[in-house]
Write a structure and sequence with these properties.
Order of helices and strands of chain A: EHEHEHEHEHEEHEEHEH
Structural class of chain A: alpha/beta
Oligomer: homodimer
Number of strands of chain A: 10
Distance between the termini of chain A: 75 Å
Strand order of the largest sheet of chain A: 3-2-4-1-5
Radius of gyration of chain A: 22 Å
Largest interface: A-B, 61 and 61 residues
Number of domains of chain A: 2
Shape of chain A: elongated
CATH class of the largest domain in chain A: Alpha Beta
Chain lengths: 267, 267
């Protein structure tokens, strides 16, 4: 394939035994939020491809001879295209290496795992996913709050505020309804539009809001407030990069229920 | 409080220093899917309250002097009421113990965390949540599939098929729409009703379906098929207890898009 970096392909009888690829969830950032299985994969990997500025303690879990390859965005440079990442992990596994592709959070959630899985399988490479703690769960844990609360919310929606170039922006608001907790990823840049459309669906202005910035990392901040104030809070607290936005629409705020409660109170 | 088990309350000046409570996510079952932080809390706990038949390897991570207390359902007996669990964890912390309340999956998701948090805070006890890998993520990882796929799904909904006694059954189908992956917890008993209502919302009969039974535990099974066959598959494979049901409605199955594609193909 032309997207593979150049390396000589040996004749079949000279090919090394195929290695393997593990898509490993690194969790939200803190080294101790990796799973034991993820830590074990880091220890035994021949090579680890990582792209975020992960906690140095995470990379320190690698084995003594493990090669560490940064495939992310250098300051002032573009990040690697996904196709190029697919190509280098496949090439390493075809050379016989046990490859770890370290991914933020859980590899299955907004993680481009489908493309890496497909690339591996197309080449007959054994591939494993090691799940991880996703940002919403870590954010709620750090904020000391549950994501679902019996009698108030019975569903959690993880949605993204980000679309690939040329695609329409995802409409997060279509998931909002009484009984739902919304956890929005990559939504900081779209917060004004999202807030407006959430309120238009009928979400209460004072729906509880948590903005979890750099969850479990050195710069962690938890900002709480009301949904209506989301855009202003992001400006006020200078939130730019990586944040999970969590807001919930409790069932008790359902108009029908509220009306009934009011009727009872007035009776 | 009358719900507290009887123990003598010392005068304030004789009270022991308060302990703490950690609500710790045990992950889906396998011991190596705990986070490093969860493992550390098990090691240093004075007492661990657990309720599911967790992997014995998980409990083996406890410290040498850690007390292990089962607060779950014995064969043929009822499980502990939530109020009683709240009471015993609070009582232990008030006695000065560092308490771990070990919970399946992630404590914040369908885990009754709100009630335990409230009980702890009402007594001024320091409380921490340690996040964990929730069943849907482990199930998808074990099935080797992502939960969101760029261009097909941009939201993941975790919903429950179970309601408390007297409450109306949750309507999982209201979350189904093109672009959504649904992960249903505690839905096995309601599968016929749920399948019917999902199909009524317009979900394709052949929407991809994964039934993850006893994820990461000894009896793990992955059953795949089509949404329309969910009830039959549960019968055929004798699935009764703990299973996560994952199905997705890819955007490309949206009628408008399908029509457009067909029109192009015919042109």
């Amino acid at each position: 394939m032309s997207i593979l970096p150049s390396f000589s392909i040996a004749a079949p009888h000279e090919m090394p035994a195929k290695g393997s690829i593990a898509l490993v969830g690194a969790g939200p950032g803190a080294a101790d939020l990796l799973t034991l299985r993820a830590a074990a994969r880091l220890r035994t990997a021949d090579v680890i491809f990582y792209d975020r500025l992960v906690d140095p303690e995470v990379l320190a879990m690698a084995g003594a001879t493990t090669e560490l390859v940064f495939v992310g965005k250098e300051v002032g440079a573009h990040s690697w295209p996904q196709e190029q990442i697919n190509a280098v992990i496949v090439a390493a596994a075809l050379r016989g290496q046990n490859v770890v592709r370290l991914k933020s959070g859980d590899p299955g959630i907004f993680g481009r795992a489908a493309e890496e899985l497909e690339a591996a399988r197309m080449h007959g490479i054994e591939v494993e996913i090691v799940p991880g703690v996703t940002a919403a769960m870590a954010a709620a844990a750090h904020a000391g709050m549950p994501l679902t609360t019996r009698g108030e919310t019975d569903a959690l929606v993880l949605a993204t505020g980000h679309a690939r170039e040329g695609d329409p922006m995802p409409d997060c608001a279509r998931h909002a309804k009484p009984g739902v907790t919304l956890a929005l990823y990559m939504a900081v840049g779209q917060s004004a539009r999202i807030t407006t459309s959430l309120l238009e669906t009928g979400m209460p202005e004072d729906a509880p809001l948590t903005i979890a910035v750099e969850v479990s990392k050195a710069g962690e901040r938890m900002i709480t407030g009301r949904l209506v104030d989301l855009p202003a809070l992001l400006v006020q607290h200078k939130v730019k990069g990586c944040a999970a936005i969590i807001t919930s629409w409790p069932k008790m705020a359902e108009p029908g229920v509220a009306l009934e409660a009011t009727a009872k109170a007035l009776a």
